[in-house]
Every structure is written in structure tokens, then in C-alpha cells.
Amino acid sequence: MFEKVKNILQKKSTRTFSHNTVHEYANRLNHLSKHFATDDLNFFCINYERVKQFLKTKNKHTARNLCVSLATVLQAINLDANEYLKLGRELKQKLKPFDNRRSDQVRKNWLEWKQIEAVQEEYENDFEKIRHKLDISSRDVLLYKRYLIVSLMTLRPPLRNDYRILKIVTNEADYEEFKNNKKFNLILISPNLVRLNISCSKVRKYYSPHTFEIPDTGKFTKLFSALQLHRHFIGHQEYLLQTRNNEPYKRDQFSSFLRHLMLQKTGKMVGAKIMRASYYTHVLKKPSKRKAKEMMHSEQIAKQHYIKVDI
Hints:
2 domains; 17 helices; 4-stranded mixed sheet; 4 strands
């Protein structure tokens, strides 16, 4: 079912979906397919009541996501999706209104932005001690990667997990060739220029491609210089972060990587969501249209999800 849904969304739908959205929808329908032991999409039209009973066993968010995914795929192949669209709307109305108080888990791991910046400074100092080493160890490579990621997440408004899939290119020609690819993001590293292009994102439809540069000035100078050393520390690997199988990190792998680099310095499991919330809460204090765009979300999303109060 997974490949079947991917093919439908990529080739038959009149809508354009990001690579990540296609995978999310395919995974959801694959879950349904396994539960009902069928890969026949018409089954879900004929057996709506049976599917509805199964959805009742899920929480409202999960059930609605399954409805939206199923309706989207059914519509793409001209099957009746009205019942699932209706159910999806009903579930949406039942969802709790947003609550921007910190949950117990968020409160447990919360850091003020100045504390997060201090982590970046620690990693920067650690990297300065090894940047001129000729013989580097696996620990040095890990430190290098941690320094790059924590710097990208703190020296500018933090993104989600979009740095997990940064394909490295070293010239403008390759950058132009790949910049509109939906399967990965780009980092151009040349002697005089570092540019990032975020075109593979869960919000690609609204905010991509998102392009920005890392200048060789001010607070970015050391990061710019460190990126010039990428061949020395990670060789000719295709992605800035990649597995032993030479595959880019998946979301959960990047989340784990980020949380553990923060854990080492703070004792807290701080991921992208808390970093984004801390930035908005302590730095911006209120929604900003310009900063929201830089962080690839709307002002409303910032107000609902990222500005946190502790009451």
C-alpha cells in the first residue's frame, strides 16, 4: 500500500505535496491497509462504517489525520471520499482549543533562550580545540556535527527538523540543478559563500523554497569557517548528516541527535519544538510576521504553539 499511495499522490493528484507529506500519508494508509488486510482502496468506500468503528479506537488527532489522508487519496483516484471528509470535519470541531501552557514534559525540559545560546557557545569552544587537528577521531567528527547543527539552530531563528536532510554541493551549477528538488534540502559550501535552500519541508506548500545565507561576518564567522572544513571532518559524504548506510537522517534520527547534544550540556532533552518555543517566548515575546516567515510558519501557529506560558 505504501508505494501505491506514493504513486497516487505524486502522479495522479491535482495537488502538489511535499516529499514528507507523501510519506506521512502513505504511512497512515499503510497502517490502515495492514489492519484491514487489504490494499484495495475501494474497500474503504464500501466499508465506511467498519472503518469508522476502527477510527473510534484512536485519539481524535490520529483519527482526523487518518481521515484526511484517506480522503485525499480517494479523491485523487475519483473514489467517493465524502463520508471521510465529513467525519474529518466533525473530528476537527471536537479537538480541544489550543492551550499554550507548558505541559509537564515541556516544563521538565524547558530552557530559556539564553541557556540554549550558552550551549552553542560551549560547543563552539569545544570545536575550537580540535579544528586544527590533522588526525581526527570519530569523537571529533561527532563534535563537529553537533557544533554545526546547534549553531544553525541558534544563530538564526530555529527551524523544525529541516537540517536533517542537507545535501552538500560545492558550486553554483550543482546548486541550481538541485535547488527545486523535493526530496532533500541543500547547503552550498564554497570558499566565498554558504547558502541554504529549504525546499523539502512539511510546510513546503506555503513557505518553500526558503533560502538564506550564512555570512562570513559577525556571530556567523566561526560557523562559516567551520563549514569550510567539511571535507576534512566528514570527507565526501553526500549529506551533512547521514547514517552508516549513507542515507540522510529521518526525522526521528535528527530529533534524537538534537536532543542528545542538548542533553550532554544541560541534562535536558531539548528538541526543535522547545527551541522554537523558547525563541518565541523569550526573544520575540509576541508573534512577528517577518520572524514567523523565517521560521516557516504563520503568526497564528506561533501564538498557538510556540509562545509558552507557565501557569
